[in-house]
Design a protein that fits this description.
Length: about 210
């Protein structure tokens, strides 16, 4: 990578394992939240708040001043609350699409809640943020012209040196931390990938190279 590329010195107080876990989810979440103009006074529901993108999105949306509702499994409720969510919904007990609430932005951070299901939970003029499934590209084009709720699918993730320096600053100021679930030695990369594919990891999985 060129020196002017998207890289920054590792925050001094952060381990290499933690620093590795900052890259992907945070960069993706940052691009998505900016595309939806998440800011002070706006509300956002983050579905899949305990994943890699989700744990990053909760912290970044909170930093941007939004009112954050997070959806995750019962076992992750306390973690997600500690990341700054104002309200946490356990999806094993409650269906957010049926609670009568509406948000400025619904962010499906794990690709499991289609736009059609979320539509009534999005305020008029609001947005649905997608992270997966190519049909969302067609929906994004369609809803940019028709209707009052937009689908946004900011792929591929683009991030700049300024973004990486911004994340470094947030980490150093104590506004952001990487959530690391398991660490695997590089030799066990197959086991690591199998665990990630269970969709049950919390935050990130890191490979260590000795
Ligand atoms: N657009 C892009 O360029 C791009 C790049 C990378 C990834 N992606 C996509 O972004 C999505 C998220 O990636 P990721 O790596 O952040 O995901 P991830 O960390 O693998 O997601 C794992 C999380 O999914 C949650 N989960 C599993 N089943 C669930 C359910 N039924 N309802 C709600 N949550 C559930 C789990 O939370 P609980 O334990 O709390 O249930 C777990 O914390 C994926 O679909 C991936 O393909 C897109």
């Amino acid at each position: 990578m060129r020196e002017r590329g998207p890289l920054a010195p590792k925050p001094a107080a952060m381990s290499f394992e933690e620093a590795a876990a900052v890259c992907d989810g945070a960069a993706l979440a940052l691009g998505c939240l900016r595309a939806a103009n998440v800011r002070q006074g706006r509300s956002i529901l983050i579905y899949g708040a305990s994943g890699s993108i989700g744990t990053a999105a909760v912290q970044l949306a909170r930093y941007m001043g939004a009112d954050v509702t997070a959806v995750c499994n019962a076992k992750n409720v306390e973690l997600v609350r500690s990341l700054g969510a104002d309200c946490v919904i356990d999806y094993t007990r409650a269906d957010f699409t049926q609670n009568g609430e509406a948000y400025d932005v619904v962010f499906d951070a794990v690709g499991m809640q289609p736009f059609g299901r979320c539509r009534d939970s999005i305020r008029p003029g609001g947005a649905y943020l997608a992270t997966d499934h190519l049909h969302n590209l067609a929906l994004a084009a369609w809803t940019s012209r028709i209707g009052n709720r937009k689908v946004l699918f900011p792929i591929p993730p683009k991030y700049t040196k300024e973004d990486v320096l911004f994340l470094k600053q947030l980490i150093e100021e104590g506004h952001y931390r990487a959530v690391v679930d398991r660490r695997y030695p590089l030799d066990d990369v197959v086991d690591a990938a199998a665990y990630v594919e269970t969709k049950q990891k919390t935050g990130n999985v890191v490979l260590t190279v000795t």
